[in-house]
């Protein structure tokens, strides 16, 4: 059967059908009569506008809708056609071109020319292909419009990106409407509608999922479908939070990898050795996301905030105190991906380039629903200075721009720095959480502070040494390590690793206390205390004593 007869038979039956060319037909019975879960009002407004326009003009009516892929443009078209009680044909122009290559235009003409009634509605999807980089002849867009106006009275034109409508509006009876991203309320309603279908598959709640994943309807449906398949592969065992998270991220195509690195989440709350105050602040930050929908939307407090409803944090403190680890813990707790921004690739000497890079990063993070980590980001939020030259002016503009992005961003951003004094005061005022990470000092013996910090420092050593795999000698003196060395978690990790290599070098079947001391001696000789005094001035005395 040739293509013409193939399409002719489909048109005669006029039932819903999807060919390899991306052509679908719906009679009015095939179109749902149920109101849409969200944006039913928009579908009604479109249908009412077309009804009035049809009475107002004898021209062919074109209705251009643009918005990101999967946002629901086709759903609105089908619902509008149902409300108008018209038959509907949809043609995916990109699929048609991909399937029929150079002959696609003739095939397209054959399809639309065999339409039996001008009262039927036509929908042209992926219209932006004519304006994509590399398309041979952009005037084909006008040729397509000229063809379809001969056979249809109402035509929907769909594109993922906004096109320049001016010339179309001058030549045709042309409407243009932006189909915006889902609001928080709409996003929640979509999750709330679909989550009951997998209530036996996961314990995740719609309000928590909606707070973390601002998806398009297509991505939400895709997540649910993927979760059902994972559930079957998992032996019909409930999916964990991490497993459901993977289902959600399967729907995301991210280009963040060009300027940021996906960080593997290796740590949980149990891995962190920090004081209770810092841990409580981190947990409070997580609660901001878990209950974001309830507070901002259900309880209406979001209306009182003029900026974005995102979460921004600055972690500051000495190197090795757990700032980056804390970012991983938050990502694990929330079930979200963490991307560490490559600051060196973001900051540029060229005017305007840094702002452009930051805008792209935040926009991609919004689409990808990920946590952004600006590690050691002093170069991005250092204090603004008096303007002495163009360099100062540009640096101040970059700091102001980052502040604006943080305020407008609805997602999660974490910035870390080793030097609190370098932070511009404006960040302190506008950041949601500013959390200090400090070395645990023992303090005065006999006080509650001493007891708490003693247990804190001791647990650092115990966590790294007692992993169940390192063969330890019986002479490890945890009290001595705790009371004699002012170390961070990073110091302990490096020390234990060095000690393990020393033990292997000596062909020892166990890691002994002497290996730890020698590792400390090597590491501490490269260090200075907080007053600038070199450790090696007293470290040898400690080893002699021991």
Topology:
Blueprint: H1 3-13, E1 23-26, H2 40-56, E2 61-66, H3 73-84, E3 88-92, H4 93-100, H5 104-113, E4 121-125, H6 140-148, E5 154-159, H7 166-171, E6 173-178, H8 184-194, H9 206-212, H10 217-233, H11 241-249, E7 260-263, H12 276-290, H13 292-298, E8 311-317, H14 323-334, E9 338-341, H15 343-346, H16 353-368, E10 371-374, H17 378-381, H18 390-408, E11 412-417, H19 425-430, E12 433-437, H20 448-465, H21 478-484, H22 489-505, H23 513-524, H24 536-545
Parallel strand pairs: 2-5, 2-6, 3-4, 4-5, 8-11, 8-12, 9-10, 10-11
Antiparallel strand pairs: 1-3, 7-9
Structural class: alpha/beta
Question: In DSSP terms, counting alpha (H) and pi (I) runs of 4 or more, how many helices?
Answer: 24
Oligomer: single chain
The side-by-side strand order for the widest beta sheet comes to 1-3-4-5-2-6
| Arithmetic mean pLDDT | 85
Strand content: 5-15%
The largest pleated sheet is described as: 6 strands, mixed
Could you give the distance between the termini? 92 Å
**Low-pLDDT regions:** 10-20, 384-393
What sort of overall outline do the alpha carbons produce when their principal axes are compared? elongated
Record field, number of beta strands: 12
What is the share of helical residues?
40-55%
Q: Give me the Rg, rounded.
A: 31 Å
């Amino acid at each position: 059967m040739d293509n013409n007869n193939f399409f002719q038979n489909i048109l005669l039956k006029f039932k819903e059908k999807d060919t390899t060319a991306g052509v679908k037909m719906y009679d009015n019975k095939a179109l749902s009569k149920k109101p849409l879960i969200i944006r039913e009002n928009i579908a009604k407004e479109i249908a009412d506008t077309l009804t009035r326009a049809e009475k107002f003009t004898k021209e062919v009516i074109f209705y251009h809708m643009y918005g990101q892929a999967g946002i629901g443009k086709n759903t609105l078209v089908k619902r509008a056609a149902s409300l108008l009680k018209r038959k509907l044909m949809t043609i995916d122009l990109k699929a048609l071109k991909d399937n029929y290559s150079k002959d696609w235009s003739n095939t397209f003409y054959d399809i639309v020319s065999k339409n039996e009634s001008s009262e039927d509605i036509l929908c042209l999807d992926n219209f932006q292909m004519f304006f994509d980089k590399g398309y041979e002849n952009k005037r084909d867009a006008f040729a397509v419009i000229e063809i379809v106006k001969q056979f249809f009275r109402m035509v929907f034109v769909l594109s993922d990106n906004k096109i320049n409508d001016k010339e179309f509006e001058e030549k045709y009876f042309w409407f243009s409407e932006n189909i915006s991203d889902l609001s928080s309320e709409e996003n929640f309603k979509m999750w709330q509608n679909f989550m009951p279908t997998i209530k036996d598959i996961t314990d995740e709640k719609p309000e928590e999922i909606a707070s973390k994943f601002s998806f398009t309807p297509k991505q939400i449906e895709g997540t649910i479908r993927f979760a059902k398949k994972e559930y079957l592969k998992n032996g019909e065992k409930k999916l964990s939070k991490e497993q459901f998270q993977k289902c959600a991220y399967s729907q995301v195509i991210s280009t963040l990898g060009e300027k940021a690195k996906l960080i593997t989440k290796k740590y949980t709350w149990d891995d962190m050795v920090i004081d209770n105050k810092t841990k409580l602040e981190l947990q409070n930050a997580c609660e901001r996301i878990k209950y974001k929908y309830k507070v901002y939307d259900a309880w209406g407090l979001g209306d009182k905030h003029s900026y974005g409803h995102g979460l921004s944090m600055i972690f500051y403190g000495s190197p090795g105190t757990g700032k980056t680890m804390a970012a991983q813990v938050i990502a694990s707790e929330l079930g979200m991906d963490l991307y560490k921004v490559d600051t060196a690739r973001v900051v540029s000497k060229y005017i305007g380039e840094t702002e452009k890079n930051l805008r792209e990063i935040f926009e991609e993070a919004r689409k990808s629903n990920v946590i952004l980590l600006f590690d050691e980001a002093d170069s991005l939020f250092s204090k603004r200075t008096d303007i002495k030259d163009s360099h100062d002016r540009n640096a101040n503009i970059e700091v102001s721009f980052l502040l604006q992005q943080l305020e407008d961003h609805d997602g999660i951003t974490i910035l870390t720095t080793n030097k609190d004094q370098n932070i511009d005061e404006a960040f302190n005022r506008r950041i949601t959480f500013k959390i200090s990470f400090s070395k645990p000092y023992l303090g005065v013996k006999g006080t509650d502070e001493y007891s708490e910090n003693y247990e804190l420092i001791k647990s650092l050593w115990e966590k790294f040494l007692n992993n169940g795999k390192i063969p330890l000698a019986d002479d490890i003196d945890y009290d001595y390590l705790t009371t004699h060395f002012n170390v961070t978690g990073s110091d302990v990790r490096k020390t234990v690793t060095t000690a393990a290599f020393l033990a292997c070098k000596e062909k020892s079947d166990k890691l002994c206390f002497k290996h730890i001391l020698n590792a400390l001696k090597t590491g501490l000789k490269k260090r200075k205390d907080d007053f600038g005094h070199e450790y090696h001035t007293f470290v040898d005395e400690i080893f002699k004593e021991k």
